[in-house]
Amino acid sequence: MNLSVNFMGIELKNPLIIAAGPWTRNGEMMKKAVDAGVGAVVTETIVNEIRANVRPRLVEKEGGMQNIGLYSEFTLEEWENEIGYVKEQGGVVIANILAQTPSEMAYIASRVEKFGADAIELGVASPHGEGIEVLASNPYQLYEITNRVVERVKIPVMVKLSPNVTNVAKLAKVAEKAGASAISAIDTVRSIIGVDVKAGKPLLPTYGGYSGTPIRPIGLAAVASISQAINLQVCGIGGIENYYNILEYMMLGASTIQMGTSIILNGFDHIGKVIYDLEKWMIDNRYENFEEIRGKALTSLKSFDEMKIEPYIAQTEKECVNAHCEKCKIGCIYNAIKKEGKKVIVDTERCTGCGLCVSICSHKNFKLIWKE
């Protein structure tokens, strides 16, 4: 099975890319990802003026992670060795860069290009603080910063968009008009992951970026809307844990995906399992390449105005295996479901076809049928 993809004109051995973050903070860490089999790695965010990261800065809770680390602690000059080291190991390197102005972004881009980066990912948003956020939400500034970089370098430029905006598809169109080669979405979500109520303090002392499993629905929606709006390739990011999540993103239009938080929670060995499972699924389902599945789910994704009220109702044809489980009964706000031991009864006059019982039943006892 050939898992290779052509992304931004670069041949990748598979669509799995490691996202920018503390797991790609130097050449050694990026090499671990390359050795594990990824198609490419994205550097931790490279900036002109560094400052030490705060401690603590990472908190995991219920599958999600808040990060208040800002960017790389390496100087721009030091990144020449780190990128060079990964290139010597045969890795494909995408340099994630961040700056306050178009001219500064273009300068950093030209430097990392000379260091050997295969492509650039523009970081135009930060969920920490307030200062840099305007780059991700202001169409004019986004155009200026993207266009300046595109004109300055010869390697592909990808723009990483934030979910902390009102219309991500509109901004993707701006980046496309400015000459970007691809869009990556989404960046982390502005967050406070929780509060220690005994101490009366947040778990981390400032706002930060939220990543991991809980943001996947936000990422999927962004990738779908971007894919429908532009003709550029899209790299999906957000809550990717396994091969199934990769397929979800690709069927909504992504050409590649980026994984990050899952590496911290499961280790670099997890990469090999994800790639193996992805290949097995493609073989088992008789797909020869990813173009056969890319965007497949978009064809059935409708706008709300296109939706019609159809006479679906819930039905169950078998007894529940657990007489004590009442999730379906409790969850039915229309009082259409009753349970008598293992027997489940649906009141077809009360049922409105909302579909919650289908998803909430762990034993898959329910389905929606057309009401005659």
TrEMBL record:
Heterotetramer of 2 PreA and 2 PreT subunits. Pathway: Pyrimidine metabolism; UMP biosynthesis via de novo pathway; orotate from (S)-dihydroorotate (NAD(+) route): step 1/1. One of its GO terms (cellular component) is cytoplasm. It comes from the Bacteria. Catalyzes the conversion of dihydroorotate to orotate with NAD(+) as electron acceptor. This is Dihydroorotate dehydrogenase B (NAD(+)), catalytic subunit. Belongs to the dihydroorotate dehydrogenase family. Type 1 subfamily. Belongs to the dihydropyrimidine dehydrogenase family. Coiled coil: none annotated. Residues 342-371 form the 4Fe-4S ferredoxin-type domain. Its cofactor is FMN. GO terms for molecular function: dihydroorotate dehydrogenase (NAD+) activity; dihydropyrimidine dehydrogenase (NAD+) activity; NADP binding; uracil binding. One of its GO terms (biological process) is thymine catabolic process. Keywords: Flavoprotein, FMN, NAD, Oxidoreductase. Its EC number is 1.3.1.1, 1.3.1.14. Pfam families: DHO_dh (PF01180), Fer4_2 (PF12797). It catalyses: 5,6-dihydrothymine + NAD(+) = thymine + NADH + H(+); 5,6-dihydrouracil + NAD(+) = uracil + NADH + H(+); (S)-dihydroorotate + NAD(+) = orotate + NADH + H(+).
